[in-house]
Amino acid sequence: MSVIDLNADLGEEIGDDAAMLAVVTSANIACGFHAGNPTVLAATCRAAAANGVRIGAQVSYPDRSGFGRRFIDMAFDDLVADVVYQIGALSALAHAAGSAVTYVKPHGALYNTVVHHERQAAAVVEAVRSVDAGLAVMGLPGSQVLHDAAAAGLPTITEAFADRGYRPDGTLVARTEPGALVTDSTDVAARVVQMVTTGTVVAVDGSTIDVAAQSICLHGDTPGAVAHAHAVRRALADAGVEVRAPAQA
User: Fold this and answer.
1) Most buried residue, 66, 142, 189, 240, by CB count within 10 Å?
2) What share of the chain is helix, strand, coil (3-state, %, to 5)?
3) Quick check: helix, strand or coil at residue 34?
4) Count of CB atoms within 10 A of residue 156's CB?
5) Residue-level pLDDT at 1
6) What's the pTM value of the predicted model, to 2 decimals?
């Protein structure tokens, strides 16, 4: 039987976190830099723990007004410190909720930047390594950040996106461009089943590309996100795929 993890970006105060936590197996919880506040993040950690959902720190540029979706050309030491700070804050909230942060996933522009940007990818990895070398790094297959994480001895989690368009090179279509989002639940579910069972997805140009992934992201802020999530779970069950988070090393 195939096995896949489902994750969602939560704690951002714009989606139905309670409904998503009933479906996903991993929660990428905001750390306050792009969204969320201590009260919201504490409640999200408690809800994740109550649902048996593993917690990841969703680290970001300091960009609340832009929701973390704008590139910032940060100095290496500044980015390291910001990521360490975010992991530390969420780790404390998760611990207070009776759980723990087990992985780190960059958010938004930082996520896309560390696919290719060597300095910022190195900064993210250095931050994670300095906090806890047992923390996994979640990112795009083939990305610079996952390459650096593996080289540093950190666990890695490859990720694909249920509702985002792909370019032929395996990167995501920018949200400002046509084809960036898949909005029909049936289409989203079919894409996820294809990703999980064949390791491929159809890119915006019609070509079929490889997307080997251990976790699939269901964006909590996408219109119809909860319906997408339930459609994905049903489709995976019909395809004989088990949904669960991998065992923590």
Assistant:
1) 189
2) 40, 20, 40
3) coil
4) 19
5) 56
6) 0.94
